[in-house]
Amino acid sequence: MHGGKQYPFHGAGLGLRKALMREFTDQTGEHINFWEIAPENWINVGGYYGNQFRALTEKYPFICHGLSLSIGGPAPLDEAFLGRLKRFLEVHRIRYYSEHLSYCSDDGHLYDLLPIPFTEQAVRYVADRIRQVQNILEQRIAIENVSYYAAPGMEMQEIEFLNAVLQEADCDLLLDVNNLYVNSINHRYDTGSFLRQLPAERIRYIHIAGHYQEAQDLIVDTHGANVIEPVWQLLEESYQSFGVMPTLLERDFNFPPLTEILQEVDRIHILQSKFRGPARDHIQHG
C-alpha cells in the first residue's frame, strides 16, 4: 500500500446540484467533507443561488470538474473561458480542477463527451493542450479516464493511451472507477490489470457512480443510479493498491431520497476507515 501522499482535500465528497441544493446543504454537514461542481454551471450565477454558493465555498472545501474544455477537440482552446475559470477558482478558493480526457466541441458545443482516438498523434496533441491549460491556470490539473463506446482509429490500448498522456503532459489523474468498470464490460478487459498499470503517484482523487445496464455486454455511464457491488469492489481494490484517497460520489439525476445518497457517501467513509485504521477515522473539513 502506498502512503504519505498529501491531498488538498480529504474524505468523501458529493457533487453539488442546484435542484437539491437547499436539502443537501442543510442536512449533510457531518457526512460530506468536500463538494464538487461543474464550474460552467456556476461562473455567472448570482442571486439566491450565487449567495448560497458563496456561503458554502466559505465553509467547505470545493473542487471543480469541468465539462466544456474539450481537451481533445480540434477547435482552439477557449482562452477567454480559461481566464474566467482562473478568476472563479481564485475567488472561491477552489482546491482543485479536473477535466475529462475527451472532447465535446468543434464548430459548436456537443452535448456529449466523445472519445479521443488512441493514437500517438493524439497523445502529443492532447498533452500539449493540457500543458497550455496548466500554464494558463498556473496549477496542475487532473484528467479523468472516461467511458467510451467506440474506439475509432485505435492504435494503442486505453491504458497505454492514458499513461502516455499523463506522462507527456505531466498532469495528474482523476480515477473514475465506474468508468473503468463500464469500459471493462463494454470492451472486455480486466480491471485488475488496468489498475496495476496506473501511475499511483499521479492519482489525486476518485469518482464513483452508478450506471445503466443496456444489455448483458453493454453498460451506459449515466450517474443516475446507485453504485453496484462490483464498482464498490473496484474502489476497495483501488484503496488497497494506492492507499486511501479523496473519493467523490457522482449523482446527476433520478435522485433517490437524501438518506439513500448519504448512505452511499457513508459507505465511502467506511471503506476509507478500513484501509487507514482508527487513528485517522474522523471527518476532516480541511
Mean pLDDT across residues: 84
CATH fold field value: TIM Barrel
What ranges have pLDDT less than 50 throughout 5 or more consecutive residues? Answer: 105-112, 278-286
Helix content: 25-40%
Structural class label: alpha/beta
CATH H-level superfamily title: Divalent-metal-dependent TIM barrel enzymes
Q: What string, H for helix and E for strand, traces the elements in order?
A: EHEHEHEEEHEHEHHEEEHEH
Top-tier CATH class = Alpha Beta
Euclidean distance between termini CA atoms: 24 Å
> Can you name the CATH architecture?
Alpha-Beta Barrel
Task: Enumerate how many helices there are, as a single number.
Answer: 9
The fraction of residues assigned to DSSP E strands is 15-25%
Any idea what the shape is? globular
User: Roughly how many Å is the radius of gyration?
Assistant: 18 Å
The main pleated sheet reads as: 8 strands, parallel, barrel
Q: Give the total of beta strands.
A: 12
**Spatial arrangement of strands, main beta sheet:** 1-2-3-4-7-8-9-12
Total tally of structural domains: 1
